Amino acid sequence: MHVNVHHVRYAVKDVKTFSKYLIHQLQFKPYAMRKLSDAAESLVLKHHEIYFILEERSIKEDSCNAFCAGNTVYPVDTICDVCLCCSDIEGVLSRATSLDQHLVRTATEHCEDTYGKVKFAVLKPPVGNVQHTLIDLSSYSGTFLPGFNLIDASKETVQRGTVNEDHLLKVIDHIAFALPVGQTDNVINWYSHVLGFSRLIINVDEDKSNGFVVQEGNKGLRLKAISSPNTDCLDGGKLSKLSDLELPKFVLCEPLDDNCHSSQIAHFLAKHKGSGVQHIAFSTTDIVNTIYRLKSHGLNCVQAPQSYYDNYLKRFEITKLNYTPELLRENDILLESHMNVDETSNDVFPFYCQSSIFEDQITRMNNTQWFIMQVFTKPIFEEKVVFFEIIQRFQTSSGFGAGNIAALWRAMQKEIFPLK
């Protein structure tokens, strides 16, 4: 079985305003539209291989049962659906039903047009308002999905298969869920049983049972991560493998203490009215150029503490990779690297995330030269509950540097709680 993210769907109060943010500040392009009813539409925005569907959130139960729609009843702007391509929908539904039949929202159905047929079903993971629409595209040759009309079909035909220099963001690197205290292992067990996901290390200092903990006083968060297996998939009628960067990866975040209301995860749970998607990370191959260009279009990023760039060891680490602390500070970029392998050896051990053995992942990461560079945007909705991350990886499809995690956590704390 293969699984990968096809698109992410939002339910927001003002589609026009949110689409302007994505188009102007993150350089998404209007891609497709679909009429749901006389008053409702779906707008698809695209950046390279990243697809977002935007719909207005509802105040009453959805009357629309359209393919890849619904689940928009929510009191705040939110991510309501992470759509997954899946080659074994029946097997997934059977495993989900064995846990709880109420987690299957729709059994297997079909949607079709002149390009073929799409098999689909809807699944409810134990994560707040999030649902997964599962789709099987093996019998479909269309550009996007049935029912959607391309906004400029002629332009899409010309550009398909060509390299576009404006593709600053490549794919979704990971999606982070904010969860209540004590719920992480339940979510991991569900994804493991139903979709075959396995643990993915956050950091070499992570504890297998307790995860990776960031703490300052009585505030902080606990992180664990999971990834889907890298198995064969159909690509244009041929079997191929997804790259590690294309594999769905979910980061699970929970606060250390339910009573700590000045923690960003506790803030999310309160303002979002429950658990859900906290942030989406996009991968890039040149983060300095990407952030420089996106900032020129008005993207606002979270500033890391000045002390991060003033630290002697951090400055040495940055310059060793031929950057300057000033360049990274100007673009709000954090960097973490591991270069302590035997420099006399010509061997560089590639790191892949697909070992399900936790200890083996740590060994591989310790024996690999790698670096990670990260930037967080400021929260994108009024409630300050959802934001984006932009990440560049070298020789690691997993993990985050301990220093990056701590610095980003402190920066986001300051952004959400400026007076604390």
Structure description:
This protein has 420 residues and is an alpha+beta fold. The protein has 11 helices and 20 strands. The protein has helices at 15-25, 89-99, 153-159, 184-195, 264-271, 287-296, 306-310, 312-320, 325-330, 358-366, 402-416; strands at residues 3-12, 29-35, 41-47, 50-56, 78-86, 104-113, 116-123, 132-136, 149-150, 172-178, 198-200, 212-216, 219-227, 232-235, 238-241, 249-255, 276-283, 334-338, 370-376, 387-394. The strands form 3 sheets. The protein has a 9-stranded mixed β-sheet, covered by helices on one side. Helix 2 packs across helix 4 (184-195). The longest helix has 15 residues, at 402-416. The N and C termini lie far apart (47 Å). Residues 156-165, 232-242 and 341-353 have low confidence and may be disordered.
